[in-house]
């Protein structure tokens, strides 16, 4: 049983530079939690506070109910995999893997057994006597992971472990990590990345960090289908969700909204109260949910400025409604070069239309 | 005890003592003073970590304090006092400085030092830049660099002997064994010159020795800086039609100006402390006195600690602008 | 640059030539000393060292054997022998018996001396002096010869300077004294500085920035300032003049550079590795000994070379803190300065002594140049 709990955690540097505020998070045994967020949002800082590499300015951090704020890293029962792998360059793979166990004064036989077992799982047996510089990037990554497994920690911490690998290797290693997690159902993992594909594929729950706090916590599909706010809605998914300004036309179980600047009227499967009639909202539609239509239930009608045929899909950029509006993008299946210069009317299913007021989703009101 | 044996014992005691000190003081801190056990484990670890840096620093701070910081203060005090018979000393204000300023030898040393300050850094930097630029363009450049850099390893005293041979003079009619006189005679000189006693030129002949030593240093640093220049800027200039000299003076030199300043100041500091060359070659005779040798004369020949300390303070005063500048840069860099 | 089309080859030649000139100019003085150290004092005094490579024409003043060498043969007395001691490589072209007429006779000719004596000198130096009367002069006949001697080098100077026990100005003892000063004075500051550099690079404590600034400041404090206060201090605490004082002084004076170089290097080590070691459970002491020290080897080597060169070549610290009135602890630099004063004209001794003292640093220099350059760059390029 390993339960990590952060209560009102705050981080302030040099007395006045506040980077994290009021973080409350409960991580349960066996979860793989992924921290995502734009660069500088404090996701690595949060991980390093869990590791004990940064002090916690205020609030409490407990592992299984024991307060860890002042505990040095080595005594928290954690292992960490760094972005740069952080292999000791002057030690062989075997020495790298045994370093922590030797410091803990484990018997040599036990150390050897653990290393042989882990090396076999990670296919590192042939490389045990090499120095890190004689290994490929993927092998180094595996050594870094193996080094943490050998210690049999309660909690694994990963700090952007795949970002130094090339694209192909990144996918392969991601799958390896997923398999590793499955083979160790009781271990808890905390994983930091800026890559949303990693987050979506690996996480049991994702923590989106923004503006010094947590924007939303939820399963990957929760975040995709029911984002709590515009930030999460635009952060998850690529290209980002389109946001169009509009007003509520008709309230009820299904809400009808009219898009500004000469747009159409579209229905959304989001219940609204009668007092919300006439409210200004942002209508969110993911590019992949857009479809051309001829009906009257549509979001907007506009000229296609650019059509990027990517093979599998075509990304269509519409003319902006106003000069300073964001471009609106739709993703059409297949290749559609001919649409450039045409006027298209676009809509989406009511279940895939999101509504936000003051940045917050109406779904949670 | 035989000195060699004594040296070995010193190494063992010194190294063992240092390691032992560091090891046991850490052990003491972690095991006895603030053990990482019990109810206060977390707090104890934090406390131990607040003290530990000072354990690591202590021997160094002690040595720096006693051997560098304290002497600065003490020298300042000595320069304001006068030794009395019986080991006592008495505050005399600026009398030592007044006495020193009244001595022509002091002004001679100051004048010569200023010449050294102008000539040596300038020539070393120019030759170093030349050697760096030339050697980067030929295949045997590394060998050339190695050979120009070599005098760096030679002691000032060794260099003094080497150059005394170059400046050697034999009576008229004999074969000259000093290169300089041999060349002088070859090009039509009437009688060999005793170069080191020629007031005026002799100063420059001493400076050449230091230039010879320091050029390698300048070359190594400047060569690295030249290589650090983005290749594209040079290529862009060539495409723009710059000839090699324009590329060098208009593209490369401006980009390494910062490094040139560093080289210049580093050599300036060496020049301010120059002692061995003058001490070994002329000992300040024939108007070749410099501050460091003047100070040595006062301290150990005239036994006048007051004036000696005053002249040491003058050297300190001359390096302080560089000191301030370095500290300022270091602090800027850390932010 | 060499790949660029249309580069003029005349310029390339100019580059080669000017660089060659520069290198020769820089090498010439040292080679002079080296060559001179392998020549006899006569050779050094009579010709420039640059002529040592080619056969030289020398005017020598030699003597025949004295009266005690004569043997009585039919009809007179004969002294025979070789002017050079034994036939060597020298070839005599002309000779004479008076300093005013040194080229009166060709080799192989016979000269008439006073009292009916005759003298024949062969080109290889063999001579025969005959006289009907008994020779009386004790010192033999002076002969002025012009001889061509092939290049000749000798190790005699080195034997004399290093191994001759009767030579009171020999370098052997000074050599060992220098070594005795140098080794502890190199090792101890490295150790002390390494710990301090680690603290300044990787430990967090109030006043760290200030200490680093102080080290940078102390970097340029002139050694001269420290002489009297420390000499006084050494005398007061009973160290006086001697090895201990020299070691301590070198340690103190070397520390700022050592700390500065090592800290700069250690700061550049990847933070992740050190943090990983912390997560692995290493204490600061273990991180230092097991991770930082092995990884800092290049910086340690750089400083070691600096400190070695500096202590080996030092004169001032040795004069002030080491060498007492007995002179038992004299070092090579001091010895050479003495020789410059007392034996200023004896170039064979001077050149050889100087070369003995610069040989070790030169060896270190060529063997470890890579680290020296790296240290220089770390120490000054910002």
* Uncertain parts of chain C: none
Which structural class do you get from the secondary structure elements of chain C? alpha+beta
Secondary structure: helix percent of chain C:
40-55%
Structural class of chain A: alpha+beta
Order of helices and strands of chain C: HHEEEEEEEEEHHHHHHHHHHH
CATH topology of the largest domain in chain A: Rossmann fold
Write the CATH homologous superfamily of the largest domain in chain A.
P-loop containing nucleotide triphosphate hydrolases
The total strand number of chain A stands at 21
Count every helix of chain A, treating DSSP H or I runs of 4 or more residues as helices.
8
State the major sheet of chain A: 6 strands, mixed
Q: What is the mean predicted local confidence, pLDDT of chain A?
A: 87
Amino- and carboxy-terminal Cα gap of chain C: 26 Å
CATH architecture of the largest domain in chain A: 3-Layer(aba) Sandwich
Structure description:
The complex is a heterotrimer of chains A (365), B (335) and C (382). By secondary structure, chain A is an alpha+beta fold. Chain A has helices at 43-51, 93-103, 108-121, 137-150, 167-183, 196-202, 220-225, 230-235, and strands spanning 4-13, 17-27, 32-36, 58-63, 66-67, 78-81, 155-159, 188-192, 205-210, 213-218, 242-250, 255-259, 265-268, 280-285, 291-292, 300-309, 313-318, 328-333, 343-347, 353-357, 360-361. Chain A has 2 domains: 4-234, Rossmann fold (3-Layer(aba) Sandwich), CATH 3.40.50; 241-364, no CATH class. In chain A, a hairpin with a 2-residue loop joins β20 (353-357) and β21. Chain B has 14 helices and 2 strands. Chain B has a two-stranded antiparallel ribbon. Chain B starts with a helix and ends with a helix. Chain C has 3 domains: 2-52; 56-149, no CATH class; 160-380, MetI-like (MetI-like fold, Orthogonal Bundle). In chain C, a hairpin with an 8-residue loop joins β4 (91-96) and β5 (105-106). The longest helix of chain C is centred in the C-terminal third of the chain and has 34 residues, at 347-380. Chains A and B meet through loops of A and α2 of B.
